[in-house]
Amino acid sequence: MKKFARALAISAVVSLAAPVIAQAANPMVGGAPMYATKNIVENAVNSKDHTTLVAAVKAAGLVKTLQSPGPFTVFAPVNKAFDALPKGTVETLLKPENKKMLTKILTCHVVSTKALSGAIKKMIADDGGAHIVKTVGGCKFTVMQKKGKIQIKDEKGGVATVTIADVKQSNGVIHVIDKVLLPAS
């Protein structure tokens, strides 16, 4: 009986520790734990740094897409990145009549594969310092590396830096970025 009780106690400790161990491999984002067992939307809604992005995803009708199996790589701009856009831009994009443009911008932050930072850095190195990435939205961005950080140059010449890499999701990966990526038009 003692052996059974001890085995039960050990199994309870292991069960309780499993989510903590799974979480340990993922960085915190926006003050919230990110769980590799949850999808992109389930995790993003908990980040206080991504409330604008979440509102935009909802307004564009992309929630179901980003909850699907994927895999996706999402370059997720923080609220400050949206705040840096010209005054009134976000408010204008969130209006129903601008859904098409909002969808275009958001899907230009998504690649239809799971690309961890190590793989991205290898592609950059293999391509001689820069790699062209085609997004779900049809944008072609240049991915490069500067001082060990991954950077993405959008079609308008703006450059975003990955500030938190490799936030694993059940349907892909998120890389947090400091700028909104914009399509050429």
Q: Residue ranges: pLDDT <50 for 5 or more in a row?
A: 4-23
| Biggest β-sheet description | 7 strands, mixed
Kindly identify the CATH topology. FAS1 domain
What string, H for helix and E for strand, traces the elements in order? HHHHEHHHEHEEEEE
Number of helical elements: 8
CATH superfamily placement: FAS1 domain
Q: Regarding CATH, which class?
A: Mainly Beta
Class derived from helix and strand content: alpha+beta
Percent of residues in β-strands: 15-25%
Report the radius of gyration as a whole number of Å. 19 Å
What distance lies between the first and last C-alpha atoms, to the nearest angstrom? 71 Å
Query: What's the mean pLDDT score?
Result: 86
Helix content: 25-40%
Strand order of the largest sheet: 2-1-7-6-5-4-3
Counted up, domains total: 1
Number of strands: 7
Shape label? globular
Q: What would you say the CATH architecture is?
A: Roll
Structure commentary:
It is a single chain. The protein is an alpha+beta fold. It has a single domain, classed as FAS1 domain, CATH 2.30.180. It has eight helices and seven strands. Strands 2-1-7-6-5-4-3 form a seven-stranded mixed beta sheet. β6 and β7 form a beta hairpin. The termini are far apart. About 11% of the residues have low confidence. This is Uncaracterized surface protein containing fasciclin (FAS1) repeats. It comes from Cohaesibacter gelatinilyticus. Keywords: Signal. InterPro entries: Adhesion/Biosynth-related, FAS1_dom_sf, FAS1_domain. One of its GO terms (cellular component) is extracellular space.
